[in-house]
Write a structure and sequence with these properties.
35% of the residues lie in helices and 32% in strands. The protein is of the alpha+beta class.
Amino acid sequence: MKYKLKQKQNQRITQITDSTLVVGAEIAKKIHVARAVDFRGIELGKDCTLYKGNDPIKEQELASTL
């Protein structure tokens, strides 16, 4: 079973080319963070921080200050 999962993971890794953009996201209770990296794992730009709450305008103001 593990062999099949490892094989599938390797197939996905081989599909990554120099024009691939990988985006990872961490979902938490109050603060969510997303980050983009290129095919070599080098971070592109800054993290995108999003706050969970009831007031989206206030959340964007808080995110822009970080």
